Amino acid sequence: MTTPGSMVLLTRLSRAVYRRASEKLLGVRLREYVALTYLRDQGPIPQQDLGEAMYLDPNNLVLLLNDLEDEGYAERQRDRSDRRRHIVSVTPAGERALERAERALESIEDDVLAGLNANERETLRRLLVQALEGVTGSVREPRVAATRRRG
Predict the structure, then answer these.
(1) In principle, which of 16, 60, 118, 138 could form an S-S bond with 151, CB 3.0–4.6 Å?
(2) How many CB atoms lie within 10 A of CB 136?
């Protein structure tokens, strides 16, 4: 009997997280959480760069950013050096929403990764960062992952 490949396993794990990470639990939709986390960790960035990092086409990115702005979680400002571009940043309200969502995600992580001990979780996290670096060229270490090592 053959076992599923790594990509199948990652997809299944991702779906398990997605099913548990409801807007009601997190306070934001999961893709909003991902965008806000990226904005917080990378600092204000061009809108196009955010779309590329999240693998979103421009239309879907605009819809996402409209929702984030409507909630007061992110803002777009014209780039002073190139008026055709927008720079996107997380707002203080977005930071607070992230903190609430991260607390909720801790319980999801504990549930989904219950079969791993603390060292195995850290190894998994480190390997995932390494894999992402291979795809994107760089991954800045998120502040939360660097400070919170759960068991």
Answers:
(1) 118
(2) 10
